[in-house]
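HUMAN: Quick job: go over this next protein and say how the chain folds.
***
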Amino acid sequence: MDLKRFSVARQILPASVAVLALALAAGCNTVSLTNLTPSSLPENPSGIYTLTLRVTPKSSTVVPETIVPHVVVGAEVHDMKKNDSVPGVYEFDLKLPYAQSQIGYYYLVDYRTVGNGIDSAHQAYTAESRASIVSRYVLSLEVNRGPVGARIGVLGRGFTPQDQIGFDGTPVRTIYESPTSIGFFVPALSPGKSYRVTLSSAAGNSDVGSFRIDSSEVTAEPASLQLAPGQKQTLTFTISHAAPAGGLLLDVTTDVPESVIMPEVVVPEGQTSVTIPVEGGKPGSGSLFLKGYGNGEVTVPVSVAAGR
């Protein structure tokens, strides 16, 4: 064995590694790479997803015209195109096979620097990133404020009848409309506050946005009801403003459910009042309650007496 040659090789190898490390360090110090691709991408019928990178020179020695970004997906290297609308941003449209739900990738950028009469080639790269293709996502609330009882739509994709809207973690009345639309009625919570709206399902929780409950007024006429079993009397609810699109649900509850027979109360869209029949059931006395209005609650005493 040539011990002398082996010794020289051991000296050259660390030196080569050091030079390479310095070159990479120089690359990191002269450009900044920012991955602009979200970690979750909504599924689309084309199966094409845009990977986006921002390249920012950190030194005046970088020659902008020499910046050539690539994205590496698996074993394939793809050239990226400059976004003509946003300086320093580059994109690549990746076509995925059907049913693929994950993308593993990283960015690689070639460029040159010129300084002190020295023209040097550099290469910078990012750590590997991953993006998920999701068939379910929430776009937005149709509106972000309204009174108690208003019907509010949520736009998105992948909704199911099992989905549930919540306000600050408390489930509210939810209406499934289609895979791209779901709705809810604003719950009877304290007005004048904003609440965090979430969508819950077997797939997990999704943030929908923030919703502010506005105060509103409701009056009931007559102010109390005296009934006999089987007897009916009308009750009119009046609101201060015309009901929004989809109508305004008045979520009336009672502490004597066996004594009161009444339909669901909804003020029709564009109207300011609704009149419903209330029928006496078993004898008893209590109240009808409507929370979230006026000073917090509207109360209508109810008495059902036998033999009237």
Residues 1-27 have pLDDT under 50 and may be disordered.
